[in-house]
What we know:
By secondary structure, the first copy, chain A, is an alpha+beta fold. Chain A has 1 helix and 4 strands, in the order βαβββ. Chain A has a single domain, classed as 2-Layer Sandwich (Macrophage Migration Inhibitory Factor), CATH 3.30.429. The mean pLDDT of chain A is 97.
Amino acid sequence: MPVVKIEMWEGRTKEQKAELxxxxxxxxxRIAKTSPEHVHIIFEDVKKENWAIGGVLSSDL
Amino acid sequence: MPVVKIEMWEGRTKEQKAELxxxxxxxxxRIAKTSPEHVHIIFEDVKKENWAIGGVLSSDL
Amino acid sequence: MPVVKIEMWEGRTKEQKAELxxxxxxxxxRIAKTSPEHVHIIFEDVKKENWAIGGVLSSDL
Amino acid sequence: MPVVKIEMWEGRTKEQKAELxxxxxxxxxRIAKTSPEHVHIIFEDVKKENWAIGGVLSSDL
Amino acid sequence: MPVVKIEMWEGRTKEQKAELxxxxxxxxxRIAKTSPEHVHIIFEDVKKENWAIGGVLSSDL
Amino acid sequence: MPVVKIEMWEGRTKEQKAELxxxxxxxxxRIAKTSPEHVHIIFEDVKKENWAIGGVLSSDL
Lengths: 61, 61, 61, 61, 61, 61
């Protein structure tokens, strides 16, 4: 049943997402006692110009 | 006042979204006693490679 | 696969949520061609003092 | 520590987002007593056909 | 039309939220050219034990 | 920079959350090449009556 939403700057490859999905799902199964088929992980690729830190768009840092 | 966020795999047409919006808004008005102009529904089209189930990206299933 | 998040002012009963869940899931199955067991609907009850419209907390309207 | 997510119709320029980020971060620092480097603001540009109000997609209004 | 979600550690008062809502709505109206009655701001008070930074729950920092 | 939101049924202990936060942050640092202090993980404990699967509230399953 867990739903995990991961927001990151765009640029992560499909291989990185696949490995993250595998490892995070294993952690949820082992630690939170859920079954793997109930774990949904959604990646959201955020453009740097859409993410501000400290009041400045990351594309301007 | 309700805000509804619907995350689905990409591929749903504009017609499908329009019908979903209509039906879900009617349900919220009838069941949750709100007025239609206060119902916001936001669709988010998620690429299959950005959605993992059971630890595997849906694009690899 | 759809994940639906519904944010509403608190106060909706369990019966209202149950009916909303049933109707919205049916709509997603019929219109978006998914199977019911893949539809997750998450309700979030928001206190009026945590929801502002027009710059004013709803608890102050 | 605050994380702010702003969903708007697409079309806002980078300059508008930069100014929003600056002003909202200043408000959070001044009013919520946080330090600027801990404020994350994420913009999400939503297509009008993905945002329904009153049961109608905004692209059809 | 903008929907703003603000996640912060719990502890902010109703007065702080009211001022944040007023200032952020004004910024959205002035900079993003929307009308105030369309601005929704939702605050989410997050317990420190539900927010990890650097791999450590904030309640343990 | 990643922000991770984890929605689960309530009932997970503080110890489980602490271990999940540690393991998921390590995975993000190793696989997504970020630094640990930039990883924010937010847990949201959802009541079973607020989470429907297959059109039925989990509290009624």
